[in-house]
Amino acid sequence: MPHAGTESSTLTPNDPEAVPPVRVDEVRVLDGPNLYFARPAIKVILHLPGYLDLKRSEAETLARRLGMRSARPGKRGTALRQRFVMRLIRNVTRRVGTEIGAGRLGVRVRAGQTVEDVVLAFPWVHRTRGRVAGEQFGAVMAGLLDSSRRVDDVIEEVAAVIMDAPDGPGPSVITPTVPVASVTGTNGKTTTTRLMAHMCMTAGLTTAWSSTDGVVVMGETKEEGDFSGPAGARGVLETPGLDIGILETARGGMLLKGMGVTANDVSVVTNVSADHLGLQGIDTLDQLAEVKAIVTTVTKPQGWVVLNGDDPRVWAMRHGIKAKPWAFSLDPASPALWESINAGGRGITVLDGEIVVLSPNGDPDRLVKIVDVPMTLSGLSQNNIANALAGAAAALGLGVPRSAVVEGLRSFAPDPEHNWGRLNTYSLPLQQGGKATVIMDMAHNEAGLEALLDVARGLAAPGGAVRLGLGCAGDRADEAITAMGEIAGHGAEEVVLKIARPYLRGRQPDELLGLFRDGLAKVGVLDVPDYGTELAAFEALVPHALDGDVIALMCHAERTEVDRWIRDHGGKVDDARTIRRKVVAARGEHELEAEIAALWDIDDESARVTAAQDLVDTHPGDPRLVFELAGAKDSMGDEQGAIGLYEQALAGGLREPHRHRAQLQLASSLRVVGRAAEAQALVTGVLEARPHNTAALMLRALVQADLGQERQAVADLIRATLEATTDVDTQSYRRALRAYADELAPASD
Predict the structure, then answer these.
(1) Which of these, 148, 398, 403, 535, is most buried using a 10 Å CB contact count?
(2) What is the pTM (predicted TM-score) of this model?
(3) Number of helices and strands (H, E) in the chain?
């Protein structure tokens, strides 16, 4: 059934109980390039049970009446019979076209969702007459089932109705007068569109773009809403003084209305993954890829088609283009890069940590280091690295100066200002002390959720947890929603469910939540709470967060409310340096790891302390650097000076894997200055968390000896050795050794 607000018509029988032999389920006017033609077309969905139920002899007779001498109708109700009907419809459509003076009318016929359904498409010049022609195919197909009527009479009667219809207006699709890029794909469309627009504005070009968030001119939103279809193209291209237009082009607009432009100068396809399957006749990834490929077929011959060389369905689109290919790939050895170059195109990839452009002749053009591209989160977000490659290639293909492309990559950040709702990253102070990282993202399918969780894990401090607010729009397949629950259960330590009511799209909240819970249960995650809003789900996660944790929220409807809450509670948007610090810390490293390593290459202990002090002075409040200064003082015998610094580092939030080391080194220094009881308490605390830490076990023995507990020290060392060793001889004497230990000091348990 057609959606409200679209230009289509639906015809139904007067008797709701009747099952007519022919029914027109939909007539849709496609204004621009579409799945069937590179020009405006009429799409008709025909339901034809009368043809599927014909006896074979009757079907053969009808074929002969239509001049189809070699037709093989097949058995009733079979796919072979459907193919026969498709051929018959093609024949009839061309005869109608000849009768109305359209010459050899272009025809596309496809199988529908059942064997009784057939999709017919043909070009049109005049809207009203084209729509009437589509509606009349019900009459002509029904008339042909009447064996008492002459075929010519049926066709002439229908042709007369079509010819009597008024012409109506012509196509409203726009022929651009400025360079235009069309961006499509399952994930990354909006980010790539915004990045390209940022590069164009960096070059001083008057730029407008459309996306699922609205129509934007030079960074100012002119119209809010989903403008990823023809209305967005019109809003962009009607901008006064426009130099360049960038159009996010979603599947829905192309299927329901066609593209909004007759041609583009550059097209981009980011990827194809499962999303919105089961809607508008698109049930498989291959069918979805065919829809996405529409933007590539109308790219001008002198233009560029930017394709994801790591996605086989996307890379296969090169076979249907007239323009030059430009492959992007995260793998510098990808065959797609060399195929593109050998075909006279270009490639773009990451080589030695840099984004480089590859061309048929010449060395790679090194644009920028990945760590200097903020949108990649210091290389953590593989998806955004791919988007950066695609956006840079497309901008260069549009003629944007190289310097503006490089500067755009350096300055486009994953923050609310540049890329609202896409991996926006914040630092949020916690009431219990420390800070959590918050990531707000529009992740809307399995691939998006996996990417969000990968980034969350990469920003969590060592030992930190990922806490997820899970939800999606209701117009996803049941299997996809269940799969997202399973992915969430695998990837997060805590999950809460949330409802985005504006995005339910006909599905009941309890049904949506139930599917998520089914997926979570598959991986053993049960009793998951749910909340009626995205903000409420987020607020439920915050009290559970500890220092270094990450709260990841799939946020669709309440981005503004969540952003305001974070800021009102002292949270701040992370800049590129903060993100890099978190990424490095998540690996147990420090952003100044090289400088720290250099400290311990200094042989002169006094010079080492001076260098460590310089680092602390340059980066005040950094607990890791304070810890290294303490170690430098400790190594030259200044235990008293080291003790205060160890305590300062621990109080400042020093994280693992350095925190327990600082506790042990502090304990060692306390022991040296005669504070053995304090040292013992510290070591005991470390062993509670790390019972088999050899350094802690040995230090405990030394402290026990200082406290006059020599027998206990020896006993504890024997027991610890028995627990840890795999030596065969020691195992042979296990019972005797345990008895000796008990004789020295009975076990506390």
Answers:
(1) 398
(2) 0.77
(3) 31, 23
